[in-house]
Amino acid sequence: MKAVRIRGYGNEPAIDDIAMPEPTEGEVLMQVQAAALNPLDIQLQAGYLSDWFPLAFPFTVGTDFAGVVKRIGYGVTAFDEGDAIIARPNPSRGGGFAEYASVPAAACVRLPTPLTPDEGACIPTAGGTAWFALIDSANLKTGETVLIHAGAGGVGTFAIQFAKAAGARVLATASGDGVAFTRELGADRVIDYRSEDFAALDEPVDVVLDLIGGDTQARSFGLLRQGGRLVSTVSPPDAEKARSKGVSASMFALDLSGDRLAELVNAVVENRIRVVIDRKVPLTDFRDAWVRQQSGHARAKTVLIP
User: Fold this and answer.
1) Which residue in 257, 228, 233, 255 sits closest to 243, CA to CA?
2) Long-range contact pairs involving 189-198 (C-beta distance under 8 Å, separation at least 24)
3) Is the C or the N end of the chain the one with fewer CB within 10 Å?
4) How far apart are CA 165 and CA 177, in angstroms?
5) How deeply is 62 buried, as exposed, middle or buried, from its count of CB atoms within 10 A (0-12, 13-18, 19+)?
6) CA-to-CA distance for 171 and 185, rounded, in angstroms?
7) Secondary structure of residue 79 in the 3-state scheme
8) For 189-246, how does the pLDDT look when each residue is reduced to its tens digit (9 = 90+)?
9) Cα dist. 45→11, 53, 152, 272 in Å?
10) How far is CA 33 from the centre of its chain?
11) Which tens digits make up the pLDDT trace of 129-173?
């Protein structure tokens, strides 16, 4: 089968012909129908996360994917052959950018009927970051105002919709045609950061979801009302600055172990979240999609089709 692999940190991914994996105890063999790219894939390849998610090489890239169960390993009772599933294994395992993947059954959930495999593959990392960062970490409440940076990105598109479903007033930053796009997703107010200074907003916010870091994160503190919360998915916030402003600030790290993936998928279905796919690319043409993701300017989600 074909798989996108790297042979070391910083190594450019390439398509290899490798043996089809066999499911061991507690695993299922999935025929991959769709796999989604994430900034996480770029970070893993570059070695930025090696302390948390060490990779064994050669490593098959891809943490978020969906497909059909072809075989089941010993002890698996949750799935049968032919079941449509979504998989999100531990990032150190990867395996999604391939025609087949052997995955722990505990890292899989059923693909709900309303969702296509393309949509299902997009949900775990981006949707999970948006849902758990807003609901668990930021404790977003009905009637509050939230500012979501990078509203047109993969996480941002989910975050805007989850925040609206929670009954919040949603502000978002975007640029170009992303401004109209984020409004379409439900943002109440969109700041075009290329022509407007978001830090000059004339309304205080209760929550900032920082998906950018750096200067954007630092300047966001001034927008929070007393007791407000800043949650960053990219870099640890300045604790001293938070204390001086009378707000809280935390770094978010996604954990989709146990039943959390099922909770997330249910939240997408129950809240009628639109899974936004920017483009679908054949696995054999993954290189262009990888470069776009690497640029940091990818819009919504890109899906690889084996």
Assistant:
1) 228
2) 190/151, 198/147, 198/149, 198/173, 198/223
3) N
4) 24
5) buried
6) 12
7) coil
8) 999 999 999 999 999 999 999 999 999 999 999 999 999 999 999 999 999 999 999 9
9) 7, 11, 24, 33
10) 18
11) 999 999 999 999 999 999 999 999 999 999 999 999 999 999 999
Spatial contact of 216 and 230, defined as CB atoms under 8 Å apart: no
Q: Are residues 1 and 49 in contact, defined by beta-carbon separation less than 8 angstroms? A: no
Phi, psi of 172 (to 5 degrees): -145, 150
Q: Hey, is 195 helix, strand or coil?
A: coil
Between β-strands 205-210 and 145-148, what pairing exists: parallel, antiparallel or unpaired? parallel
Torsion of CA 67, 272, 182, 170, to 10 degrees: -130
Provide the 3-class DSSP secondary structure of residue 96.
Answer: coil
Cα 220 from chain centroid (whole Å)? 22
Token pair, residue 301, equals 């989600």
Burial string for 188-226 (b: 16+ CB within 10 Å, else e) reads eebbebeeeebeebeeebbbbbbbbeeebbeebbebbee
CA dist., res. 196 & res. 204, Å (int): 17
